[in-house]
Amino acid sequence: MQPASSQAFDGKAFVSTLTTSPGVYRYFNEDGELLYVGKASSLKKRVGSYFLKPRMEPRIAAMVAQIARCEITVTRTEAEALLLESQLIKALKPRYNILLRDDKSYPYVYLSGAEEYPRLAFHRGARNQPGRYFGPFPSAFSVRESLNLMQKLFKVRQCEDSYFRNRSRPCLQYQIGRCTGPCVGLISPEDYRSDVRHVEMFLDGRSSAVIDELVATMEQASAALNFERAAALRDQVAALRKLHAQNHVQGATADMDVIACRIESGIACVSVLFFRNGISLGTRDFYPRLPLDAEPADVLAQFIAQYYLDRPVPREIILGEAIADEQLLSEMLAQQCGHAVEIKTRVRGDRAQFLQMAERNAQASLTSRIASRQTLGTRFEDLQNLLGLDEPPRRIECFDISHTRGEATVASCVVFGPEGPEKSHYRRFNIAGITPGDDYAAMHQALTRRFRKVAEGEGVRPDVLLIDGGSGQVAQALDVLAELGVTGIEVVGVAKGPGRRAGEETLILAGSQREIHPGPSSPALHLVAAVRDESHRFAISGHRKRREKARERSVLEEVQGVGARRRTALLKAFGGLAGVEAAGVEELMQVKGIDRGLAERIYDALHA
């Protein structure tokens, strides 16, 4: 490691001290900012190429001119160096590297384990619960579509455990033929396990084996003259065959990703087509951050190295461009995932068609992105003119409050920049300690928690602060900023217009105490409305999650002495929680295991 120095960095002298071993090098400027991370099969040769060449590309020359320090890490193999480089780029985000920006985790289909009646569910996040996780899927929509199919085909429950445990009669899903009613024992554990096994086989890509088993069971039911059972199995087999014919992609291997890249106007789009078990799971687009003069092959190489760091790797990766270090990337991915990985660029037949599909998708998405960015730039400039700012705002924040009659109040903060929403900076605030339904107090608390860090010199200061509401909410914002001593922020209230119609909003400018009506044709108002609507959506979704989480837990679970068995007995005896709430102490004592003292505690808990 080379210590920082106030003198100009002597690259030639530094290179003379380096080893010829493989490793990773990092360049820093005089402020300690990381400029670039690279890997090398020979550190001496690779780092020397930056300082010993008489001529370099403009972007490389611009970076070299800023280098004040270089650090190196020696590795055992070049594959290790490639892996370390990818990890450092993703973690440290150097300015001159191609950076994959994908903060969102991928969704899975989750099949719970260690239960008599397992459930299927949507899952995103850490996979640390007992059971199986199928995926990852490219989008939440594809997971929910798969769950909907599972519910129709195999009727395995998808309800929450708290809901399942407290049922005294089957729910609507049973009534419409999408569940077999395990909550009230309408299906035996053995038959239910058979349905669960078929779900696992189907999600593993063995739909043909599922069909064969169901056909055999259908024939047995027919031979036993159980024609109603045979007819139900016949319909299930027909639905499975139809689905298999629709979704199975001829020519796709069990696991394959097809990746194409297009670059235009300084923006790159990487489009990925996902194939798992011979079934197309759809596409997803990525927009990596680019240094100057990047080529599609460079982007694809960096994309693969970073993207598969923490995700399952398919056995086959089809690329639209030949990349450097193709063999090295294959070896690194194979070491990481434990199976062979093929990277192909010259393909024919079905694979060539898949690649053309990915390339067309990348071009279409890139064209849409460029048009959207140009439109967004126009809106930011118009907002600058509308608010009388010296320059277009670089960061807009918007706050909104959501609750249901004061219950589970949540405040949202969303952030927009010149490139659109910056979702990694979104924040929610669970509001507590206020009078339920007091929106002013909720806004005051959320803004205080947000801008206290700015006052302490830690948080990022927005250029424009939008408040969803009228003059009362704006006053709360001004009070908070004054209390904390935060200045230099343009505060704007967004009040709904007559009839609450879009395009008729009133903007309240806190600085000049003016109200303006930009009108439905104003690009600035379009931007403000988009930010406000996103804040509203984010607040509502957070409120609903908090409210549902609070309601998942039965009030009976809080009563000392009421375990799962007594709770179930109470709910069955009175037909649900509403019946228990309506019962008196004497009626509660009629349930087996409930004495007077426990009955009084239950009554008090339900009527507190």
UniProtKB/TrEMBL annotation:
Localization terms from the record: Cytoplasm
GO molecular function: hydrolase activity
PROSITE patterns in the cross-refs: GIY_YIG (PS50164), UVR (PS50151), UVRC (PS50165)
Record SUPFAM superfamilies: C-terminal UvrC-binding domain of UvrB, GIY-YIG endonuclease, RuvA domain 2-like
Span of domain UvrC family homology region profile: 258-481
Main location: cytoplasm
GIY-YIG domain segment(s): 20-98
Keywords attached to this entry: Cytoplasm, DNA damage, DNA excision, DNA repair, Excision nuclease, Hydrolase, SOS response
Stretches assigned to the UVR domain: 208-243
Task performed by this protein: The UvrABC repair system catalyzes the recognition and processing of DNA lesions. UvrC both incises the 5' and 3' sides of the lesion. The N-terminal half is responsible for the 3' incision and the C-terminal half is responsible for the 5' incision.
Assembly information from the UniProt record: Interacts with UvrB in an incision complex.
Family affiliation: Belongs to the UvrC family.
Xref: PANTHER family: UVRABC SYSTEM PROTEIN C (PTHR30562:SF1), UVRC/OXIDOREDUCTASE (PTHR30562)
The protein's name in its UniProt record: UvrABC system protein C
Source organism of the structure: Dyella acidiphila
